[in-house]
Amino acid sequence: MFYYLKGRAAHLAPNLAVIDCGGVGYACRTTSYTLSGLQMGQEVTLYTHLNVREDAMELYGFGTEKERNCFQLLIGVSGVGPKAALSILSATTPEGLATAIITGDEKALTVAQGIGKKIAQRILLELKDKLAKGQLPAGEERYGGTGVTVIPQNKSSEATAALAVLGYSPAEIAVALKGLDLEGLSLEEIVRQALRKMIK
């Protein structure tokens, strides 16, 4: 329904940003990472997700499309609600989450408030399984084009898969990885440097 909101940051509080768009204040639940980039009175753009329940409608806003994509991935996991997803994305970046999915790093998720070992394992299992079956948003259209992806076994393939989780196309990923020290750098650093190149 809402793709993004563009307006003035009228009120900021823990996990909440109110964006004034033409005199209407939209309350957006959000992460600490998004909040850290907002300043009162400044014009901002938040990419949104509308969560509809029987008893309420809540709007969630994120500073980047990557963060929103990760939020939508997380709430698609059985037993993971918006509150848990916000907690995870307040504790790790989108690239950190993508790396955790590829490497099976549950500790990267359990540092988030309210996220225990069992739910972290479920998140990693379900999302890695979806990646293997080409069911992540980038899967069928962007990652290989076949809808079937083999779980990667080396840093180059792992970095490619992690960037695909974030929604980048194979062509964009290939350009971003070119020239990086794929053997000497850690997976997360490869992903971070590739993202830096793509953002320029």
Which labels suit this protein?
single chain, 200 residues, alpha+beta, OB fold (Dihydrolipoamide Acetyltransferase, E2P), DNA polymerase, domain 1, five-stranded mixed β-barrel, 9 helices, 19% strand, globular
Structural notes for this entry:
Helix content is 44%, strand content 19%. The protein is α+β, with helices and mostly antiparallel strands and 200 residues long. It has two domains: 4-63, OB fold (Dihydrolipoamide Acetyltransferase, E2P) (Beta Barrel); 66-199, 5' to 3' exonuclease, C-terminal subdomain (DNA polymerase, domain 1), CATH 1.10.150.20. The protein has a five-stranded mixed beta barrel with strand order 1-2-3-5-4. The longest helix has 16 residues, at 117-132. The two termini are 30 Å apart. Mean pLDDT is 84; it is low at 138-152.
Set out the fold topology.
Blueprint: E1 4-13, E2 16-21, E3 24-29, H1 32-36, E4 43-52, E5 57-62, H2 65-75, H3 82-91, H4 94-103, H5 107-110, H6 117-132, H7 155-165, H8 170-177, H9 187-199
Parallel strand pairs: 3-5
Antiparallel strand pairs: 1-2, 1-4, 2-3, 4-5
Helix pairs in contact: 2-3, 4-7, 7-8, 7-9, 8-9
Strand percentage, roughly? 15-25%
Class by alpha and beta content = alpha+beta
Through-space gap between termini:
30 Å
Query: How many independent structural domains?
Result: 2
Weakly predicted, low-confidence segments: 138-152
Compute the number of helices: 9
Q: How would you sum up the major sheet?
A: 5 strands, mixed, barrel
For the record, what is the CATH homologous superfamily label of the largest domain? 5' to 3' exonuclease, C-terminal subdomain
CATH C-level class of the largest domain is Mainly Alpha
